[in-house]
Amino acid sequence: MMNMPVSERSLGPAAGQGTGQPMVRNDNAQHELSVRVRDLNLWYGETQALKNIDIDVYQHNITALIGPSGCGKSTFLRCLNRMNDLIPGVSLQGLVEMDGRDVNEARMDEVALRRRVGMVFQKPNPFPKSIYDNIAYAPRMHDLVSRKVDVDELVERALRDAGLWEEVKDKLQEPGTSLSGGQQQRLCIARAIAVRPEVILMDEPSSALDPISTATIEDLMDKLKRQYTIITVTHNMQQAARVADYTAFFHLGELVEYNDTQTMFSNPATKKAEDYITGRYG
Amino acid sequence: MSQSFDEISAQLRRRHRKTTRLKWMSMGALGLAALFLVVFFGDMLAKGLPAFQQAQIQVQVDYNERAAELPLAAVQEDVRPLVSRGYLRLIPGRMEDNPELLGTTRKEWVLADSAVDQYLKGHHTGLRDGQAAVVERLQADGRAELRFNSGFFTRGDSKMAELAGIASAAMGTLMTLLVTLAVAFPIGVMTAVYLEEFAPDNRLTQLIEININNLAAIPSILFGLLGLAIFINVFGVPRSSPLVGGLTLALMTLPVIIIATRTALRSVPDSIRHAAFGVGCSRWQVVRDHVLPLALPGIMTGSIIGLAQAMGETAPLIIVGMVAFIPDVAASFSEAATVLPAQIFTWAGEPERAFVEKTSGGILVLLAVLISLNATAVVLRKTFERRW
Ligand SMILES: Nc1ncnc2c1ncn2[C@@H]1O[C@H](COP(=O)(O)OP(=O)(O)OP(=O)(O)O)[C@@H](O)[C@H]1O
Ligand SMILES: [Mg+2]
């Protein structure tokens, strides 16, 4: 449960705050539940990085995670596809539920989970293979396709969905690393959607890119949300305001405010969020 | 008050002088090292190149019944001491194999005794006066000359210098290194993969890591003792065989390969691992499909250098009995064999003048192989170097 200091400004009864739901609902958005997080705590060794996180993430929405550096956004994101398992000394408590199943339960295979929850990283990290193989690798590995024609088709569809097809269709055999930074990031997005996941996690996907590539990625995210649930971390307030349906503000490991993006940016319920959004907080 | 330019320059001059002095000292050191290298190579080449030539003389060979009994009788008395005994010994056998030779007399170029060889190469010590005159006469008639010594590469060791070659040792080296590679490469790479990609970072793995690093610094002769104690005494692997030699060298090469592989694995950026985990690879798939291919050039380079090191090793092989007089090429991995450095060591101990050039010739061959191995390693590294 969230403990809100009394000093913090609050808009009426903080509806749904303790239940993990956004304070104000965005009525244009979908409200099918995708990921349910309850009372999530995480420690790196002795230091607690996430404290009592409750949040419901809705399907076919873009949910933006914002907050000052070191507040636990990436850590939270990694809880959703269990990438934290790779970091030694991490301990975790609480519920992360998808499809009615706890992703951390012993029976859950993290490989299966990561097939349904894809990830795009801050720095574009294509495999040092050809553009084609970057896309084809994972579907082949998961036995989604095996015949050459099917693989070809899947590669084309993924690249089209990622808005990269026109640029690379003539050089599919060239190394993925030969593309520009923005193209590489879209290649990584294509790689993530090639296995048809349900959720795509993006950790500052455009922070290493120029404004034009950033705009391309934002357009892409907007298109992709029809098919996928997108959870993205961003340090760029305008970006969050532009693309996200819901925004969650983290601070020192706590989820301070979770709200409809419009409300969050026009009329935030908490003082901390307001200070951060208006730039009064570093 | 701040200092003037002149004051600062005065201080700087001292510092600049120090820099210059240090620069000259390092260049001097480099020059000295280069000089040593030139002297070493020059000396080896001067001594060793003659080993690639061998004296042959043209004599009349009588293939008759007497020669079948007493091979010496096949050649005239005056040139008899000049012909290699090793060659003469073969005559009866050749007559048995080719009966049509019987009763014929042929002029043939035959291998000369090593004393003749040395005489032609300017070392006038081994021949008696009368014999020297005969050699002079033959040479004047164009019936004695130095020719390319193919036997050096095709024959095994021999007590007769003109017959001694490196074939058995070279084959022994090849077989030994094959065993070393077959054992050390898979074990070394898998160990490194486990330590680097799978093992938790705890006391035990740290202890193992420290021990592996120390193992690389152990005097190689101790590995020989270990090989003797374990492979020969416990497991009964035949002494002097490429098998036991290869296993012993594998013990020595293992830490080198493990360390090289770990370094190569560590140089693969984590972003690649994250990308692979992110699309749902299992740990093994991450390693097999993404990390190992990127690390492979580094692994191969390290392994080749480890093998080159093992190839030049003699001490541990003395202990397992591979330094010995082995004239024949080993036919299997369990037969007695010797290796190139051991062959060089054996020749270096021979008192005869003719073996001095054999020793240097052997060293030249060994150096050539080592240099080409290291060059292969460099080429591999350069070709497969990746940027990401
Ligand atoms: N691998 C790790 N080991 C130990 N502590 C970590 C590790 N990763 C993150 N932390 C700590 O956890 C806290 C949250 O880090 P996290 O990376 O999630 O922040 P973030 O909100 O993503 O920051 P940024 O905006 O700078 O990316 C920080 O205090 C950080 O020091
Ligand atoms: Mg982060």
Structure description:
- The complex is a heterodimer of chains A (282) and B (388).
- Chain A is of the alpha/beta class.
- Chain A has a domain at 33-125 and 198-277: 3-Layer(aba) Sandwich (Rossmann fold).
- In chain A, 32% of the residues lie in helices and 24% in strands.
- Chain A has helices spanning 73-80, 110-116, 131-141, 148-161, 165-168, 181-193, 211-224, 237-243, 261-266, 271-277, and strands at residues 33-44, 47-58, 62-66, 90-98, 101-102, 117-120, 199-203, 229-233, 246-251, 254-260.
- In chain A, the strands form 2 sheets. Chain A has a 6-stranded mixed β-sheet with strand order 6-7-8-3-9-10, with helices on both faces. Chain A has a 4-stranded antiparallel β-sheet with strand order 2-1-4-5, covered by helices on one side.
- In chain A, helix 7 (211-224) links the parallel strand 7 (199-203) and strand 8 (229-233).
- The model of chain A is unreliable at 1-16 (pLDDT under 50).
- Chain B has 388 residues and is mainly alpha-helical.
- Chain B has 2 domains: 61-157, no CATH class; 167-384, Orthogonal Bundle (MetI-like fold).
- Chain B has 15 helices and 3 strands.
- Chain B has helices at residues 5-48, 65-69, 85-97, 114-120, 129-140, 151-154, 167-198, 203-215, 220-234, 242-266, 270-278, 283-311, 315-319, 340-348, 354-384, and strands spanning 53-62, 105-111, 144-148.
- A 3-stranded antiparallel β-sheet of chain B has the order 2-1-3.
- In chain B, helix 1 packs across helix 15 (354-384) and helix 10 crosses helix 12 (283-311).
- Chain B is extended.
- The relative contact order of chain B is 0.11.
- The interface between A and B is medium-sized, with 25 and 22 residues.
- The site of adenosine-5'-triphosphate (ATP) has 11 residues of chain A, from helix 1.
